[in-house]
Amino acid sequence: SYNLTGLWDSTEYSVAIRCISVVSIFWSEWSRGKTASTEEKAPSEKVDLWRVIETSHSAGSRSVHLMWKPLNSFPPSGRILGYKIQYFPENNAALKMTSISTDKKISLPLNEKAYIISVTAYNSAGSSPESVLRIPSTDEKTPQIIETVRTFTTNEEVVVEWIASEPEIAEYVVEWYKELETDPFSRSWQYVSNSTNWKTNKRNFKPFICYNISVYPLYGNKVAAPYSIQTYVQEKKPSEGPVADTGVPGKNEVTIKWKEISKDKRNGFISNYTIFYKPEDGKEQNETVNSDVLQYRLKSLQANTQYTVYIMASNEAGGTSGEPKTFKTLKF
């Protein structure tokens, strides 16, 4: 007999044996293989836990969406059977409630009070250490510790950097998701320790899509107010241009109005709008305004003259014009 040592937990092994005679130089054939699995042990790592707190729609109730990542310890300690979620009001642990989930997410209906929530993963041998989050009460004022956040993109990475007013903060959560994404469970997040910057592969972001990025400082068991910004890892010119509304012209002027392009068509941050206008048989002129301007008065026009006007919306990658419109100034 022989004891095999140094094996991984919860791992199936196949064993075969062959033999050789003392007086021979030839080995026998291998025996048929036997398979057996080593025992599981309780998970040794905490789950990577985060939350999205939904704004309360009615007095005294709100949804808190919890999500966590699968344990990534290697070798694995065993097959995870499920997750135990426990939660109770911060000032009344006697009201502790328990839920079981086989998924890596759960939504909890909570009232306006502060709550303590813990999640553990379990297998046949036991449970992991608790991962704990505190959910603030609805009227709690969380401090703004982060002063500024900036993001930039290199050839391979998206980089987020921030400045905190309290340098003793040692842990942060960076959260990112598509601006138009409404499912809270589609958000991505990562814990950052002892650093005020975070990098990730550029492939984790899609080009021409606006992302919300938030940085949350953690102190004790509390989560401070986030600092949020928006970013595109790559821009292209808008998919469509604005539609001009010419309104009622005067003799020598007209007010041009337009609406913002829908967010899914911008493909980048709109930097400005350019109004192009041209009298019949005349020279085209243009005026450029900032991105927060959605109307502009054209002056010094010729009376009793037909004009063509169109508007171009521009971002960092270029501009796209909307359909041209015509109007005629008044004679008197």
UniProtKB/TrEMBL annotation:
PROSITE patterns: FN3. InterPro entries: FN3_dom, FN3_sf, Ig-like_fold, Type1_Cytokine_Rcpt_Type2. CDD domains: FN3. Residues 1-41, 45-141, 238-332 form the Fibronectin type-III domain. PANTHER family: INTERLEUKIN-27 RECEPTOR SUBUNIT ALPHA. Belongs to the type I cytokine receptor family. Type 2 subfamily. This is Interleukin-31 receptor subunit alpha.
